[in-house]
Design brief:
The complex is a heterodimer of chains A (249) and B (254). Chain A has nine helices and eight strands. By secondary structure, chain A is of the alpha/beta class. Chain A has one domain: Metal-dependent hydrolases (TIM Barrel). In chain A, strands 1-2-3-4-5-6-7-8 form an eight-stranded parallel beta sheet. Helix content of chain B is 40%, strand content 16%. In chain B, helix 7 links the parallel strand 5 and strand 6. Chain B has 254 residues and is α/β, with parallel strands linked by helices. Chain B has eleven helices and eight strands. Chain B is globular and about 45 Å long. The two termini of chain B are 17 Å apart. Chain B has a single domain, classed as Metal-dependent hydrolases (TIM Barrel). The chains are: A alpha/beta (249), B alpha/beta (254). The interface between A and B is medium-sized, with 36 and 32 residues.
Amino acid sequence: MKIIDMHAHIWVRELYGQMHMEMIDACHKNDVDRLLVSALFGGFCPDEKDIADANNAVIEFSQKFPDLVRGMIYVNPFYDSAAETVREYLKHDEMVGIKLWIATFCDEECVNPVIEEAIRQDVPVLLHSWHKSVGQLDRESTGEHVANIAKRYPEAKIIMAHLGGNYYHGIKSIRNLPNVWTDISGTCDERDAVDYTLKNVGADRILYGTDLPGSIQDCIAQVEESAATPEEKEKIYYKNALKLFRRLK
Amino acid sequence: MKRIDVNVLLGHWPFRKLYKEGLNNMQEYFKEESVELGLVSSVNSTFYNDACEGDEELHEEIGKNSAFKCVMTVNPKVPGWREDLEYEIEHFHICAVKVFPCIHGYRLEDDIFWELVNVLEEKHIPIMVALRLEDERNTYLYVPTPLDTNALVVFGKKAKTPVIYLHALTWEVGALSEILDGKHDCYIDTSGLRGATFPIEEMLRTANIDTIMFGTQYPMLSEKASTYIVDRAEISEEDKEKILYKNAERVLNL
């Protein structure tokens, strides 16, 4: 089975240390064909240098493993340069999408130029999203924030990460928004997350992601034990990603 | 390869629908994954005022099915557990006692808990301590109290009966390495070993192979995740056998 893991990260600047090499090793052992990586340097609110370092690291990593790794451009919408950063890094064929984390809520006004650039360039935007009953981070978006930005820009291709964390909160927020996809990464401790998402969203908008350096196996397990048909599993593992990420082709 | 799942649940979880609830689904899982024996406790018992009534339901449901062994649920804050323990030893042939301090609201150092532990020590009954039943971040209607890892270490050192920590997360296992050395009578199951790229291999850097037991917390958690991390681990077949059933057989006298 072909697998595209569309949600993985580089966390430390030592690119070829144990953590990242284990990621590559795990991809090879679990037949992952493509790994879409963003680098999250600089803490919760990275400055422009952190952003440049992060995106340059991803390009280097992609070039080191050209048969496997592609990049997601990391931006901090707080800076006016964010849309320009997207334009600049999309000149690199390795970059296939955009990643936002928690520098701002994803529906703040300052995010608009990034989304508008994503629409112009026809690339998806992966939005961190996690609703928590304890430990919610400052400016950590939830499914409701994702829904707000998706409604504001119905032509944008939006990905709500982690099924929204608590999928009962996230999935209902976006289930009626056809321009929102969602990935299963980070939801690995509950058995029914994929079935619940299938029931409410359908197989066409679910993506396989792992949040590596997390676990590839956990996420494969969730898909395999779900009620998805073999055709639906193919969509989740790679077909939906191929349709969504135009630059992957 | 044969498996013993030390952590399966029957009954109704009140906070969300479990898509694979019930005995029939459990038996299908056992068949698919070659599980020969499941150590089962009742979810209902966790929430009933009289946990023993939940255990009676459980015993009735599984009957004389040899694929199951009953694990008794005890809330030591509720009176009457001593008599219930005697009753369940005699009638349900329990192989362990499971406690939920995170839900029932007490600490491992509390006297009320140690009264239970002392009785279990006298009777040589292993104790299973559930660290959680689901991710604390995802709960709405009740607020579980996470257990302090230092308290888990202290309890593990002090208890004189086997202690099995259930649903310990990968990072917690690192903090427990001191008591997972094979010298203490402490163990963990695999149900919480998530989110690491190679969790078993990572755990074995600090813990002893004799301290890990295959447990899934089915049907709440992903059974295949526990299956995959063991089956695909780069360890010897002999070590896999220890995790999948030999450690449980030895510690729980199965």
